[in-house]
Each structure stands twice: as C-alpha cells, then as structure tokens.
Amino acid sequence: MHRRVGWIRDNGGVTTTRPVIGVLALQGGVAEHLAALERGGAVPRPVRRPEELAGVHGLVLPGGESTTMTRLLDGFELFEPVRRRLAAGMPAYGSCAGMVLLGSRVLDDHRGRGGADSATPAVGVRPLAALDVVVRRNAFGRQADSFEADLDVEGIDGGPVHAVFIRAPLVEKVGSDVQVLATVEPVGQGPAEPGGREPHRPDPDGAPAEASVGTIVAVRQGPVLATAFHPELVGGDERVHRQFVQMVRAC
Ligand SMILES: NC(=O)CC[C@H](N)C(=O)O
C-alpha cells in the first residue's frame, strides 16, 4: 500500500512503525501537537506547503482561530490540497478551531447576528467538510469562555481525560455516520449570570433527536477525529494523540 511507504521504522524495522503525521503549522498550538504526537508514537512534521502535505499519512489541525486559519489556508495555497486529501480518506484530527474547520457547516457564536439560537453561518470560516457535523464557534457563554473538565471519552481507556476548553466550539448536529465520543453537561440550563450574555442553546433548525444535543465535544467519523478541547495542553497524557496515531496506522 503506497500509504505505508516511508513509515519510519523504530529499530531494525522489527516491531513497530511510526506513521508520519503532519501538523498544520500556519497558526495556533502547533508545537504542543508536534510534541504530543512524538510522545504518542508518531513522527511529527509541521506542514506549511502542499509538498509537505504530500509526505504525511495523517494531519492534525490545531487550535487557534478558524477565521485566521481559513485565510492562511488560502494564502498558503493549502485549502484545496488539504480538502482533496481529506476527501480521499486521509486521517485527520482537529482540536478546537481544527474541529471547526473539519465540520461541514459552521455557525457563528451566539453573540453574532440573530441571537442565541441563530443559524447564521460563521463569517470568514470556510469548512473543509470532512465531518458530517454542524459546529458552532465560541459556543460557550462568557461565564465559561474557558474552563476545564474531566471527561469520559469513548475509545480512550484509563479514566477520564482532562479537557481544556478555550473559547471552544460545540457540535450541534451530527450525521448518522458520526460517532459521539464525549459530551459535557448542557450549558445554559440555569439563569444567566447577572450582566452575562444569554447562554448558548442548540440550533433549533433540524437538531438531532438525541438528548445530547448541544453538549457534544468529541466526535469521530471513519478516519476523522475531532475534539472541542485541547488534549495537547495537558502534559503527560497523550491518550488522545495515541488514539489518533492508531487510527493512522489502521488506514
Ligand atoms: N482555542 C481555539 O482553538 C479557539 C477557537 C476559536 N474560537 C475559533 O473559532 O476558531
């Protein structure tokens, strides 16, 4: 299989191979993902040019700002090459802004035009449509712009994952092929904080008929994994990256 060509052999090629996994290195938390991938069993490579993309077996899209990353993907002439590799089945993992970019439809935060329940498409974000999900950017209210939580993530053994959320998105709607791996407690159930904004509520426009709507923070569809949180910021726990490395190996 041509995909396996170039895998780096650990020692003598007897036991393990380490897939080459790229990190989209235009903006955001690149170094942290490179380090977590290395610890998680991959050979990490920053990707800034189409030629670099051609040499990787999988790609991580880091956190940052999805509007800025959209512009840079265009500017570095990477949008189409990345979109094509994804459409051809390249494994990918997106965290936070990376999750936003991997979605099929992206809604603006609740402060955007239209109010809390708005289905306004996010201005300036062009999603890569590798995941059949609707994602809302900046979905948590000001009282919870950034927070941390211990989450059970399906497929990750060894106890909850410590999840760091920074102006994080939420998945509001999933297609039938999408597996929900983790949810958080619904936000906005209590009264709004004094002076705070209206809390987020799920998209009323065709939301899925499951109780977890508005709470989904990790999903997988085939070779594509996405988390609203940043496991790369938690030193000493590479389980999510290790899981992605396994997904790349399995392809
Ligand atoms: N930590 C992050 O990646 C933040 C994501 C950012 N709010 C966005 O929409 O793109």
TrEMBL record:
UniProt GO molecular function: glutaminase activity; pyridoxal 5'-phosphate synthase (glutamine hydrolysing) activity
Pathway recorded for this protein: Cofactor biosynthesis; pyridoxal 5'-phosphate biosynthesis
Active-site residues (renumbered): C96 (nucleophile), H230 (charge relay system), E232 (charge relay system)
Disordered as annotated region, ranges: 187-210
Ranges of biased composition (kind: Basic and acidic residues): 195-204
Binding locations of L-glutamine: G64, E65, S66, R137, I166, R167
Keyword flag Lyase: yes
Keywords in alphabetical order: Glutamine amidotransferase, Hydrolase, Lyase, Pyridoxal phosphate
GO cellular component terms, semicolon-separated: cytosol; glutaminase complex
SUPFAM superfamilies: Class I glutamine amidotransferase-like
EC nos: 4.3.3.6, 3.5.1.2
Pfam assignment, any one: SNO
Reactions it catalyzes: L-glutamine + H2O = L-glutamate + NH4(+); aldehydo-D-ribose 5-phosphate + D-glyceraldehyde 3-phosphate + L-glutamine = pyridoxal 5'-phosphate + L-glutamate + phosphate + 3 H2O + H(+)
Membrane-crossing residue ranges in chain numbering: none
A single GO BP: pyridoxal phosphate biosynthetic process
InterPro entries the UniProt entry points to: Class_I_gatase-like, PdxT/SNO, PdxT/SNO_CS
NCBIfam families found in the cross-reference section: PLP_synth_Pdx2 (TIGR03800)
Subunit (UniProt): In the presence of PdxS, forms a dodecamer of heterodimers. Only shows activity in the heterodimer.
Function: Catalyzes the hydrolysis of glutamine to glutamate and ammonia as part of the biosynthesis of pyridoxal 5'-phosphate. The resulting ammonia molecule is channeled to the active site of PdxS.
Family statement drawn from the similarity comment of this UniProt entry: Belongs to the glutaminase PdxT/SNO family.
Listed name of the protein: Pyridoxal 5'-phosphate synthase subunit PdxT
Organism: Halopolyspora algeriensis
This protein's encoding gene: pdxT
